Amino acid sequence: GAVVSQHPSRVICKSGTSVKIECRSLDFQATTMFWYRQFPKQSLMLMATSNEGSKATYEQGVEKDKFLINHASLTLSTLTVTSAHPEDSSFYICSAHRAGGPLETQYFGPGTRLLVL
Amino acid sequence: GENVEQHPSTLSVQEGDSAVIKCTYSDSASNYFPWYKQELGKRPQLIIDIRSNVGEKKDQRIAVTLNKTAKHFSLHITETQPEDSAVYFCAARTQGGSEKLVFGKGTKLTVNP
Fold this sequence. Notes:
Chain A has strands at about 5, 10-15, 20-25, 30-40, 45-50, 55-60, 65-75, 75-80, 90-100, 105-110, 110-115. Chain A has about 120 residues and is an all-beta fold. In chain A, the strands form 2 sheets. In chain A, strands 2, 4, 5, 6, 9, 10 and 11 form a 7-stranded mixed sheet that branches. In chain A, a hairpin with a 7-residue loop joins strand 9 and strand 10 (about 105-110). The termini of chain A are far apart. Chain B is mainly β and about 110 residues long. Chain B contains no helices and 11 strands. Chain B is globular, with a radius of gyration of 14 Å. The interface of A and B includes residues 42 and 44 of A.
């Protein structure tokens, strides 16, 4: 149990376009999902915390108008990178906290590799 | 906010030797400390975790120790194998508020056959 999927696994887009990444909890309900960004050879940096039915909480320095997060259901959160630029190229990983589960446990998705040309 | 420092950034050991990775944290309110293993291009995988009411936890070849007074925790891998080669991240979660984790910068472990 506790499987998290992401779609797409990798995407290449042109500069200026928008890209949507989906994060799904397949066999559990996720009250909270987290979006991370990981540049090559670096650590995971939390971008935002997404709670079902409410606005996402963004970390300092993350532009909420550029990285749109929607958590419309207990099994799906989406991250839309708007007007993507080459510097947005990165590995985007989501994680999900199981509703009713241990507060600390997060289940990670497989990640989405974004390349902006 | 919480700040997690991790050392070393790279670690190379011979197969069969032990490997130790150390992390320090700044927020004394942190109460949960997981360790993740990440292979290239893949998701982080939880390998062991420890809560602040415990000083040590072991799972086969992997152990974690926590010193709350000094605010540091360590990952110990014994009898290392080539498949242990990966990047390891420590993290800390602060009690109260959101469940967010703050990660260390990672340690690239290479186990040489």
